[in-house]
Amino acid sequence: MRNRPLFLKLLSAVIVFGAWEIAGRIPVSYAFPTFLESMSALATLTLEGTIFTAYAETLKPLVVGIIISAVLGIGIGLWTGLSAKFDWLFSPIFVVMQAAPLAALIPLLIMVYGIGLTSKVLVVCIMAMPVIVLNTSGAVRNTPDTLKEMGRAFLGTERDLLLKIVIPAASPIIFAGLRLGVSAGFIGAILSELKITPTGVGDIITYSRSIADYPSMYAAIFSIIVLAVLFLNLLERVERHLFKGNIRGYVSD
Amino acid sequence: MRDDEHDVEYAVSVRDVSKNYGDVEALKDLSLDFPRGQLTSILGPSGCGKTTLLKIIAGLLSPTSGEVEVNGKTVTGPGPDRAFVFQDFALLPWASVIRNVAFGLELRGVAKSERESIAQKYIKNVGLSGFENSFPHELSGGMRQRVGLARALSVDAQVLLMDEPFSAVDEQTRRKFQEDLLSLVQQESKTFIFVTHSIEEAVFVSDQIAILLPRPSRVSEIIKPTGIRNKGTDNIRRDPEYLDIVDRIWASLRSYVE
To answer: How far is B9 from chain A (nearest CA, A)?
Structure first.
C-alpha cells in the first residue's frame, strides 16, 4: 500500500507535465515553450553551472529573510498571543503588512535601503513574516484551557506551561504558518530580483525573456518551484520529528 | 485538642466559600467537610457550581470569600497534596501514554527514569499495559480516562479531585469504572472528591453525598449511604436502600431540572 500514494503522485506529475507539453505544442502562445524544451534548457543551465551561481545569489536574501521571519515571527507571535496588550500593539502592523500591495511599495524600500541585499531581505520578510506571526499568535491564543489548567493543577510553572503545553499545542498551526510563510518568502525572493536588481534566478528569468529564450525562462521558474516544494517537505519532516503525536497526515507527504 | 481531632477526621474543609462571576453568585457561603479516606460526591443539577467548587478546592480558582483547608492548611493555589482528574481527560495529544502519565512527575522535576518506572506501575494498575507508547488519539474514550486517572495517581496526592470523570465515556465503560473506583477507594488510603450529575453513580460510589442546589449554590443535604457500602458491587444496584436513596435524591432535585 506504501506504493499507492507514490503512484498517484507520479500520475499527478504526468498529468500536469503532459498538459504542459501539449499546451506548448499547440502552442497556446509563442512565448510558452513545451515541457521537454524547458527541461532540456534546465539541463543546459545545470551543466553550464549557471543555475548554481544563480542560486548562490538568490539564496542569500531568501535564507536570511526566512530565518529572520521564522525566528522573529514566531517570537512576536508568541508574545502577541500571550499578551492582549502586545496583540493590540503589533497585530495591526502585520495585518497591514499582509494586505499591502508589495510590488507597489518596493520603490519606497529602494529609496530607503538602496538596491542591495537589505532591500531584498526586507521584501522576503514582508512576504513571509505576517502569516507566521498571525498564525502563531492565533494558535497560542487558542491553546485549550483545560490543558493549561491541567498544567497548573499538576504544579507546572509559567515556563513549564509555555514550553511543555502552549508551544507544543500550537505547533501544528505554527508549522502551517511557517509553510505558508516560506512559500511566500520564495515568491518574495524572486519578486525582489525582478523588481529591485536582476540577480540570481531573477536575472536568468529577466535575461532569457529579453532575448526570447523562453525555455530557459521557464526552466528557471520550474527550478524555484521544485526547490520550494523540497524545502516544504523538509519542514514537514522537522515537524514530524519534533511532534510525533501531532501527525494526522498532510496533503503533501 | 478538639481542633487536632477535627484535622485528622477531615482531609478537606470548605468554609463559607462564595464565588461571584461579576454579578452572578455561583456559590454562596458554602461549607462542607470531606472525611479522610472516603469518597464524597458533589451532586447537583447542571449550573449548580459543582465544578466551580472542585476547582476552588484544587486551587485553580480563588474564592471571592471564605477559605478551603486541606490537612489544616489554607489553600492558596494548586498543591502536591491534591491531584485532578479532568472531565475531558486533558491529555497531551503529542505525548505518548507513558509521558502523559508521568507528566505530573515531570512538572515536579522527577528524573526521567524514576518517573517512568512510577508511571509504568500505574499504567499497569489501570490496565493499560502494552499501550505505553500509544498516543491518545489511538485510544478509546475509556482508555484515555484511565490515562488521566493513572496520571493523577502517580503523583501520589492524598486528595483526588475528580470532575465528572466518567461523563465522557460510554455507559458500559462507565459501569466498569464505577466498580473499579470502589476498589480503588478501598486500596488507596486517599480522600476522593467526586463531582457528578448522575444520581445513580453518586449513590453507587459514595461514602457521602453532598447535594448542591443552584442559584446561588449551597449544600442542601448530606446523605451517607452507609448501609449499602459493604454489600459488594454485584448487589448494590438492586439493594432496596440504594433504590430508596436514588428516589429520595431525585425527589429533591426534580424541581430544579428544567
So the answer is: 25
Q: Is B80 on the interface with A (CB under 8 A)?
A: yes
Find the helix or strand (DSSP H, E) in which B85 lies: strand B82-85
List the single residue in A with minimal CA-CA distance to B93.
A245
**Chain A residues touching B106 at Cβ < 8 A:** 164
Map residue B95 onto helix, strand or coil. Answer: coil
Each domain of chain B, given as residue ranges in start order, spans 83-156
A165 neighbourhood in chain B, CB within 8 Å: 92
Cβ contacts below 8 Å, chain A against chain B, sum to 67
- The three cell numbers of residue B199 are 444520581
CB burial class (10 A; 0-12, 13-18, 19+) of residue B18? middle
Distance from the Cα of residue A81 to its chain's centroid? 22
Rounded to the nearest angstrom, the minimum Cα separation between B78 and chain A is 5
For chain A, domains (ranges, CATH) are 57-243 (1.10.3720.10)
Q: pLDDT digits over A25-82, tens only?
A: 988 888 889 999 999 999 999 999 899 999 999 999 999 999 999 999 999 999 999 8
**Model confidence pLDDT, tens digit, residues B152-206:** 999 989 999 999 988 888 888 888 899 889 888 888 889 999 999 889 999 988 9
Its ipTM equals 0.86
